Amino acid sequence: MAEQPGSGLKTPQKGYRLFQKKGIKVFIEGVWHNNPIFGMMLGLCSTLAVTNLMANALVMSLSVTIVVILNSVITSLIRGFIPDRVRMVAYMIIISTLVIAVDRFLKVLLPDISNALGPYVALIITNCIVMGRAEAFAINNSPGLSFMDALGVGSGYTLSLMVIAFFRELIGFGSLFGVRVIPASITPLGLFAIPPGAFFALGTYIFFINLLRNRSKKEKGGSK
Amino acid sequence: MKELFLLLFASIVTSNIALTYFLGMCPFLAISKEIKVATGMGAAVTVVMTFTSLANWLINNLILLPAKLEFLQFLIFIITIAAMVQVLEMFLDRYSPTLYSAFGIFLPLITVNCAILGVSLFMVLRSYSLIETIFYSFGSGLGWTVAIVAIGGLRKGLIFSDPPKNFGAAGITAILAGLMALAFIGFTGVVRG
Amino acid sequence: MAVVKALIFLNAFSLFICLLIIFLDRIISNYGICKITINNDKEFTAKGGKSLLRTLFENKYFIPSACGGKGTCGYCRVKVLNEDIPVSPSESLIFTREEIKANYRLSCQLKVKTDLRIEIPSEYLEIREYKGSLESSEPVTSDIKKIRIKLLEPDTIDFKPGQYVQVRIGGEAGTDYRAYSMASDPEERNSIELNVKLIPDGLGSSYIHALKEGEKIFFSGPYGDFFLRTDSARKIVCVAGGVGLAPIKSIVLAWSRQPDKRILELYYGSRTIKDLYDHDIFVKIGEANKNLRYFPALSQEDPEWKGDRGYIHNIIQEKLTAGEESEAYLCGPPIMIDAVTKVLTEKGIPLERIYYDKF
Question: Do A89 and B82 touch (CB under 8 A)?
């Protein structure tokens, strides 16, 4: 009897062009198939908290994207040196350090938004997306591919957050990025500015995304 | 004394950590519909939350602040939480193996439950005293448990209704949570400040 | 500097936490001494807290295990006679509901916390742990090596042709095991031969291929339901694909030594002539023994090869006769096994008489 091949490294890509193709594929998977919000149901805590205003959503999703990219790339670079048992601890240390850095940057560069985001930036540490991608992808793939995966997932996250925030701010405050677009005579639907509204917005968003996915599945004539 | 109990009450209803601050969502939407498991999970989270907040307060106020090492807060807090979950795991394995196997993979996931880290962070943000921290964290744990058990019960009741398929399990749970959050806002007048 | 202070504090803190956890672990996870009773007959006491599999191993009772205790292979199953043993998620994936009701559990997932009464097949009690040394390591193809291990303690082994051993990866201190079939004649009780193919990033094959002469190797065995049945006079059909030859070679060698009136047909397939190792051995046996019919085949084009061309299941389709009076032993990659099994059943060999070793 022989053994099974170990969960090893993929064969290195030969040639830049091949890398590009596979990289693009990984990227698109991150945006759509592995989308944290509707694909994997991860990172929902911050989604609900920061989508009340588009500015908040943008800063948060960019912060998350930066952290997940850096974390995935670092994890991928040192993946040969991490013993299996201390994997989790290693992730925690890397992520915590990155988040501390990002938090400090925000406090200095964008103090108002940093205040508005409050502890949610720090909570990126427990954001399942960051650790999830490290564990599911970066620990077993090259830094290049890990970068594309992280970029894809981060972009998908940003996209979802911005869409939800767009509607929440428009309907809840009548503004976009703090600029009032709906005439003052029309009272905004305050429901969407408060926490319950976040839940409703998320649920509706998932509804429409699933509608899109099932329709495209039907058109392809594929099975469920 | 009254303020402390108000704090406790507020953290369960008006400032419910799950419904108002959206922390601890992942198990929320993924946990089974079994009430017993949800209660067990809530109890585990409450225990971890209270003890870690306590430990973190001590470390923060007795070591980090005097030594001007506040920037290490995030890292230290998450280490305490990970350690506490590890000890909890040992405990459950020994004294309640049924609960231990019921939790399965969710037990180590308590470590990354944003609610637990969040409570420690809020404690720092609002500069709570030691006794305030205990009431606040215990209350938050209870509040989270109430929310998760209620959602579990509501989801169980879903088998009698027929929501549009495109919501999926997560979508409809989000709507349910929204309705619950809306209901809890009704408590706002009860606690002032 | 603040950074130095931070680093010192972090290290001290982490150290403190680690020590605290270790200390608590000693106290909380102390399950005391537990008594394990096997087959209502043998018993021993051991410190609780480890998996049943490890506890049995440490007391010289060997249970087959292919996945190293991860709960995925299902080999380590035992019957537990105690009441109320919890079921872990991995076990519910491997066992059927009836098996769980009949109290089958995976010994690698079951933690020893109280006295346990278990039942294991009596063959397991024959399994021993061996210490040997590497006698020779000979490359026979570009990625297959023939390993000969001389037995030191105990210095003899009894096995049926076709069985396998579990080699401890990393020597005496290793904790992972990998299974390899014995390719040698059971008559040679002082040494065994393994045929090991190097798998990229494979834990076991990398370890074995790197062994030097004289190095000590630890393994346990013999294991396996795949061995030559000697309770009938049926025709023996052996099918080997690539490095699956190992247990088949053992069967053919054992057969050829005995004045067995049974006919043995050997179908041995590989890709190129370079991969068809030990081909000459079978040609020689065939010349000496008229009861061996040898059908080697290559699946790839080779101008030097004068024998059959094609996939082994197609060769069998052409050449096999008298299926109803045969029994078959197959070893090779899963695709080959599936294809050959299909052909064999079409040729009349009932499924209960088709034995296979899938890797």
Answer: yes
Pair of tokens at residue C282:
């079978």
Query: Do B142 and B61 sit in the same domain of this protein?
Result: yes
Residues of C in contact with A5 (CB under 8 A): 199-202
Angstroms from A22 CA to nearest CA on chain B: 31
| Angle, alpha carbons A49-A51-A57 (nearest 5°) | 105
On the question of pLDDT at A223 being above 60, the answer is no
Query: Encoding tokens for residue B193?
Result: 């400040």
| Same domain (yes/no): B110, B37 | yes
Residues B101 and B66 in one domain: yes
Task: Flag residues of chain C having pLDDT under 50.
Answer: none
Total domains in chain B come to 2
- Name every chain B residue with its beta carbon within 8 A of the beta carbon of C20: 83
Nearest CA in chain C to B93: C29
Please work out, in degrees rounded to the nearest 5, the angle formed at the alpha carbon of residue B176 by the alpha carbons of B173 and B182. 140
Please tell me the predicted confidence (pLDDT) of residue A219: 67
B10 within domain boundaries = no
Q: Which residues of chain B does C19 touch, with a Cβ-Cβ cutoff of 8 Å?
A: none
**Structure pTM?**
0.67
Both B128 and B179 in one domain: the answer is no
Beta strands in C91-143 (DSSP E): 104-106, 116-119, 128-139
pLDDT tens figures, B41-87: 888 889 899 999 999 999 888 888 887 888 888 888 988 888 888 88
Per-residue CA distances from A19 to A34, A66, A139, A156 (Å): 20, 22, 18, 21
HSE, side-chain direction, 13 A CA sphere, residue C332: 23
Residues B167 and B126 in one domain: no
Across chain B, what does the average pLDDT equal? 81
Residue B156 has pLDDT above 70, yes or no: yes
- Kindly state whether B66 is in contact with chain C, defined as any CB-CB distance less than 8 angstroms: no
Task: Tell me the ipTM for this assembly.
Answer: 0.72
**Are B140 and B176 in a shared domain?**
no
In a domain, B2, yes or no: no
Structure tokens at C6: 């931070």
For residue C68, the chain A residue with the least C-alpha distance is A3
Per-residue pLDDT tens over the stretch C273-295: 888 889 999 999 988 888 899 99
Query: What does C44-100 look like in DSSP terms, one character per residue?
Result: EEEESSSBHHHHHHHTT-----SSSSSSSS-TTEEEE-SS-----HHHHHHS-HHHH
For chain C, which domains are there?
33-122 (3.10.20.30), 127-223 (2.40.30.10), 235-358 (3.40.50.80)
Question: Smallest Cα–Cα separation from B18: which of A45, A124, A190?
Answer: A45
Do B83 and B109 fall within a single domain? Answer: yes
Domain holding B179, by residue range, is: 162-193
Helix, strand, coil fractions of chain A, as percent rounded to 5: 75, 0, 25
Residue position matching structure tokens 């009701």: C101
Same domain, B115 and B66: yes
Residue B5 domain flag: no
- Asked whether the beta carbons of B168 and A39 are under 8 A apart, the reply is no
Q: How many CB atoms lie within 10 A of CB C213?
A: 10
Residues paired with residue C104 on neighbouring β-strands, in sequence order? C79
